[in-house]
Amino acid sequence: MIAQGQPLLVQDVIDARPLGRFQCIAIGLCILVAVLDGFDTQTIGMLAPSIAASLGVPVKSFGPAFSAGLIGMLLGAVTLGPLADRYGRKTMIVFSCVLFGSLSLATAHVTTLEQLFVLRLLTGVGLGGALPNAIALASEYAPQRYARTTVTTLMCGMPLGAVLGGVVSAALLPRAGWQSVFIVGGVLPLAVAVLIALVMPESARFLLARGRDMKQLAHIMRRIAPELRGDERYRSADTTARTTGVPIRLLFTEGRALGTVLLWIPYFLNLVVLYFIVSWMPAVLLGAHQPASAGIAAISAFSVGGVLSSVVQGALMNRLGARRVLLCELLACAALMLVLGTWPEDYALVVAASFAIGAVVQGAQAGFNALAAEFYPTHMRATGVGCAVGIGRIGSISGPVLGGMLLAWNWSPGAIFMAGIVPAMIAAVAVAANRSK
């Protein structure tokens, strides 16, 4: 029973009720945004040989185009995330989807590598802004007891999108060419943007924090709690909620500095490992005299492991404790990299280890996203998540670069895999030292 006659805490109203249809729709749309992110991020690598042949350039010259997309994601995460704390999560999600959808359609018409570079950079900005805002909005509509499960389930959308990208590419590439895949990758986010604009509610906590449109807030709260009359007053537990902007420096004030740094370190290093594996696993296995099919099987197993672990990550963190689960996953990653480094020529073992690494690395990444959404208060949540995602994007850029350097230095396949132990162990130390969660 909700008390009458006094201002209500928005989060108390949400926490007091089960996860209803209204909230599930909002969270489901956020998961769709994550699927679109995974689709776009992975398909460019699959299409590179066909694009190279069409443009008359060698595949090895695609390195800058790959990096451009990741750099754009970094820029989008650290700019569109903070803007959402001023203009709204829903507004920036719609803007981001329209941006990267339109640019994906434009990419289908490139005729030079330079055009591809520019469009991938700008597409990355849209992608970089979509995910942190989807995480922030989904976490704010979930009751506290489901917050971690909600965010980690949302993150399974990225490997699902990668799988979808592979299916679409395999179906369309032989029949309609690489351009058709970019057209699909453009139409889908534009359609989702329209759906979000029409159906998705703005974050109730954001509306309260900004003191905007109290009628809209009351309508949203009645959708969540139908027993409310509609004339209730609301307040936030966050006493600093009403600000005109959220400078990044606030992530390091009021006792948040150490927690921010200890979140960023494993966020960065875990994505170094993740993108190193995604980018270079096939090439490293070829160096270990494995067939080309081994690389495809390993990456597929890696993605499937990520989907399954993301679904259960939140429940594990709630039951066993966030620090314990994340620490075990990072230590398991180090042990599995040792297995790959010791027996890189064993096909069955490589595929099995790839599945397990996909589970622990992508599960841990989903967990870090959940912690970022928990750690920062409402008025700066999109800024905090956006900056964490931005730091992670630097890791996603660094992983492929470091892998390429190790290959250029003629490291053996075993030594390259064992190099992955170092970032996993440093990340584990940072998680062990973080007492904020």
UniProtKB/TrEMBL annotation:
Major facilitator superfamily (MFS) profile domain: from which residue to which, for each copy?
A: 26-437
Transmembrane stretches in the record are 20-39, 59-80, 92-111, 117-139, 151-172, 178-200, 257-280, 292-312, 324-343, 349-372, 384-409, 415-433
- State where the protein is found: Membrane
| Alphabetical UniProt keywords | Membrane, Transmembrane, Transmembrane helix
Q: Which InterPro entries match?
A: MFS, MFS_dom, MFS_trans_sf, Sugar_transporter_CS
The membrane topology noted for this protein in its Swiss-Prot or TrEMBL record is: Multi-pass membrane protein
Q: At the top level of its lineage, which domain of life is listed?
A: Bacteria
The name this protein carries in UniProt is: 4-hydroxybenzoate transporter PcaK
Q: Which organism is it from?
A: Cupriavidus numazuensis
